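pipeline stage [seq->struct] | target=Enoyl-CoA hydratase family protein | organism=Streptomyces liangshanensis | residues=243
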Amino acid sequence: MVTTAHDRGITTLTLDSPANRNALSARLVDALRAALDTCARDPAVRAVLLTHTGTTFSAGADLKEPASPYTFVSLMRRIVELPKPVVARVTGHVRAGGLGLLGACDLAFADRTAADFAFTEVRIGVAPAVISLPLLPRLAPRAAARYYLTGERFDAAAAVGAGILTEAADDVDAALAPVLDGLRKASPQGLAESKRLLTADVLRAFDDHAEDLVQRSASLFVSAEAREGIAAFLERRDAAWVR
C-alpha cells in the first residue's frame, strides 16, 4: 500500500491504494508509519518525498476500515518528529484526513490545476478534530474558519493562501527540483536541528491537545448524526439535515 524508491538521498514514499483512493485505512496508516520508521533509521535518507498514485492523494479516513484516532495521531506526529524533512507532492484530490498528512509535512507542493482540497468532515456530522493538531498552527485563521465550516472545495492557489501548501505550480516536479537539490546539499544535523525549530509549536499542540481531540473525534464518529452522515455518503444521497 506504500511503495518506496530512493534517489540520491531522497526516499520517495508513494501511497498506492487505488481501490479506495488512498483512504486512510488501518493498513495504509500502519504501512506508512513503518516506511517512515525505516527512513528515520537509514543514514542514506536525507529527506522524504510523500506522493501518490492515481488522481487522489488521499480521500481521508476509510469509513469501511478506519484507523483508530490514536494510530492516526501517532502517524502525523511521526511525520512532524522525523529528523528528516518530509515534502508532499500532490497532483490530485485531497480530502479530510489527507489534509492532516499535508499539515504534518514540512513542505507541500501541488499541481496548480489537478489538485483540489476540502475539509469534508462537517458534511458527514463530524469535525476535523485530530487533523487540527498539525494544521491549525499553520493555517490562516479566516481560511480555517471558512473551509472547516463550509466543507467547500478549494483550489491549490487558495491552499497556498491558507497556509496548507508551500507552492502551487504548473509543473510540480520542476518546482520541486531545486528544493530537493537544496535538501541534498544540507547536512543531516543541520536539517534535523532546523526542523526542530520549525516544528516546536506543532509538537506543543500534540502535547497539549491530542488526548482531548482523540476523545472528541471518537465520540463524534459514533453519534447518531455521524451515522446518518456516513450512511448518506456511502449511499450517495443527501443527509437528512440538507436543506
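stage status: PASS
auto-comment: The radius of gyration is 17 Å. Residues 188-221 form the longest helix (34 residues).
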